[in-house]
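Extended Data, panel c. Modelled sequence:
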Amino acid sequence: MLSLKNIVKNYHSGDTVVSALRGVSIDFRESEFVSILGPSGCGKTTLLNVIGGLDRYDSGDLVIGGRSTKDFRDADWDTYRNHSVGFVFQSYNLIAHQSVLANVELALTLSGISGEERRRRATEALERVGLGDQLNKRPNQMSGGQMQRVAIARALVNDPEILLADEPTGALDTATSVQIMDLLREVAKKRLVVMVTHNPELAAAYSTRIIRVKDGAVVDDTNPYHPEEKPEENEISPDTVCEKAPSGEKKAKSDRKKKKRSMSFFTALSLSFHNLLTKKTRTALVSVAGSIGIIGIALILSLSNGVNLYIARVQEETLTSYPISLTAESADYAAMMEAMVGTGKKNDTPEKEGTVYVDDSVSNLAGALTNAAKNDLSAFDAYLREHWDEVRDDLIAIQRSYDLQLQIYNSTAKYGLVQCNPMGALSKVQAYSGAMTAGMSLSIFSELMPGKNGELINSAVLEQYELVDGKWPEAANELVLVVDRGHRVTNMTLYTLGMCDPNELTAILMALFSGAEYQPKTDDLTFTYQDFYDLTLNLVYQTDYFTKTGKNYSVGGKTYPVWGDMREEDDFNAGNLFKNGMELKIVGVVCPGKDANGASISGSVAYTSALSALVMEKINGSEIVTQQLATPSMDVLTGLPYRIEDADTLTDTAKRAKLQGYFDTLTPEEKQKLYLKIKTAISEEQRAEMLRILSETFPSVAEKRAFLVSLFGIGNKQGSLAETLPDGTVNPANKAAAAILLALSPDKSLEEYQAMVPMYEALFGLDGVALTPGNETYDNYLSLVEAMYPTDEKLAAAFEKTAMSTIESFYGMQKQQEIATAAAERYAEKIQAECLPGGTPDAAKMRAYLVSFYEKSNSLPVSVIEDYVNALPFFSTDENAVTLPKAFAAALREDATQMAKDEAYLTEQTAAIFDEFFAAMDDAAFASYYQDYMEKSETTLADNLEAMGATEGRDALSAINLYPVDFAAKERLTAFITQYNNTKENDEEKITYTDLVALMMSSVTVIINAISYVLIAFVSISLVVSSIMIGIITYISVLERTKEIGILRAIGASKRDISRVFNAETLIIGFAAGLIGVLATLLFCLPINLIIHKLSGIGNINAVLPVAAAFILVAISMALTLIAGIIPSRIASKKDPVEALRTE
């Protein structure tokens, strides 16, 4: 069974070698009681440790069950100690923090025995040693003899083949020693017992064999064993270290022992947990220290979560104030905010320290502004009506807004007739400030959100606002005044309604726009509700501004009147139109409810959708709108066509007569403008050829982009037109300008134009500093181009558009110069005809012309000029002499040049050239200009209908506002919009929408989260410190539990099992730290919330730790402590079990 063959074991201490065993060879029987005697230091314990697999021999062989152990791995030795060997130590080596029963069960745990089976077998083992009533005691509650019995029970519980006892009675009195020896003798009847002792009497009395050892060698053996050779087929499999299995019982035991088990994680947790309980104070302090970082992070997460929850609630509560808005033209607000705030992705590492770089937010903003999307609201509205049942339940209301301005006046104001909407005061300011306020629109009037099922007022509005006085509107002409919770209205409302002097508002606005200070006079004013009820507001239908002029136009043989806008007349008085309009009255006062976070009414005076519907019905049914829709090709305000429609029906002669009649009505200025337009017109064929030349010159995307950059520079008078750059490469600006000239006149090559272009640098006023890639100005323009035209398609379109506009500009300059030259030539011909009649010089007339010319161009007295001119000879033999003909020719050239610069003369001559140009044409050539230049309206049908306020005949739907029931409904509505977009193939047909609340709140959320992450990063430092501290504490625990490590290794625990024990300890500490951190956070949130409520005045913000975050934080705490304990646990696993067992 067990055989030692020439075992040698040496210990090294520096250069010294100590021989513990010197070629020991012993064979043991399957069951016998062997005592090993010898003096201290002779190698007895070393021999026992080698037999038990605790210590490794240097040479020789230990044969177990017929298998050599030379090739044993650590796992094999662990299995051997656990299944085949039981140890009984002199110092008992029980684990102090475990109960008696748990100490005995430990070996079974490593064997993979179930919990119930472990308890049964451990109990039986303890009963066999007489301790069946001591199961739950701790080792420190027992006597030495009792503890040794526990050790024997632990050794026997796994039914080992070998029991090794090292001085089992060394620490016991005589009576107890006898009891222990009796117990061992009983055990030896069924297995091999090897005992090391110093007591020869006990050995002689109980042993069946005594081996004496001296100086590491066997010197005597009272009952040696010489086993016979065993047949090969009877040898035990190398996967087991137990005895061959002849019986059913041993076969079962053999099968069980073939399984190599490891300590369960729950056993490791139990060992560590009971160990930590023996150091409650230290464990508590370490856990609290470890929880500090968790508390910090948890509090930050709680605050961040509380604010985000508050934002979410505000979003839901303000859905009626900020609906999903679809407008006819939708800007990219997200991109605009990113450009203005600078939240985009950027390189955060500077290229060079000490240098400040520029972020091109202007280009980003320009891109956001220029990439505004146009929405086909009519198509979407049709889709919405078709799929109404899909969205009905998700909507509080749907509000359609039209391009309609209510015309409202106050006829009872003490300041005279006041235009309340559109605001009259603003029109005066716009007239003063011009472009500064162009397009600006202010209104205090707004439409109430209608009910989903046709109600005048939506129930959400009634819930959101309190009726302060009067009643809600019940008819189309009834309005309601909206005040704030303090029952205040803005002074803008008072000025607009005419309750304060509107001229004062005009003065205030003009002062503000001019940078001056102005103090309003409304601070101390108060009004009663009745003051507002007494207002008489008159609504005028926009079509009533137009009246018949007495002129007519004909279409299809039918005559229609021409209409005129009465507002253009000096004596216009809107009061004369009130009788055809409607009187409006304010019938109630409302204010936001005390719990309302949002407001669905945007103005100070609100009306119902019934008023809008009535106004649109009246306008669309008016005579002028009906006429305009009946004659869509004609402008009812001028009687002119929107486009020429008889070009295919008239003869050339008729076209000439009709077009000449129109030309005859033109002033010289109009003729000059029209002639220049005609001469600079570029045909489609010319345009296509020019673009072909440019595209071939700049074929790639990069070259087109460089072309645009160059033109941006030239347009801003930046750059150089030199042929090459300082580095010798082609100048992009030079090439761009040359390509434009090539497209205009391809009679020269690109290279020839490149050589000519530099002379134009001064003409364009360029600064002469070349724009090169890498140059800051060049890169800024490049960024602008990339932002405005982000796709190849947009870049190509911009390339064509910019190129053609530049060509048209060049072409216009060229033609203007040609016209000026022609005018100068005409002037020169006229003077020559006067002074050289029939080609014969008239000296008197030439002298008279020279006197008049010099008189205009000099300040000399006339007499001096006349003397000089009269003295000029007509002929002279001196070639350098100034003669009358020479002076005349020079003066005429300069005079003609100056006359060509005279605007009045140039206009007069251009008009004459215009007349001659058409007079020289035959009927066919003349008629070819009819389609493009015959008189027609300068406006469009849509322009006229908009001026009349009509919503029919044009796409007047300006906005669709969707008011969701709740936040989930909003998500479904956005999904519905996406569903609509998926039906469209082209991006231009897809709908974009604005969700301002989500946009603003998401930005706030991003900022809050960013701050939270930064704070968490700082607080995480304490987690790292805590982890390091826990690692140190774990290492201390390793030192304190070294003995326990040795015990576990002796009963078969592997190195991995030892690591698992200490990993379990760090996990317990981590769990405790995380749990303390979470519980502490929950407690701290109570006073924190009180402080927040006190400081902010907002009772809805509460710091709340998310449940998921709590679990995650506990997991993070456990993970960090586990990581911190890796090194100490590895140190523990590598400890020598023999050395560990010697530790006290």
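The CA atoms of residues 18 and 517 lie 104 Å apart. This feature is highlighted in the accompanying rendering.
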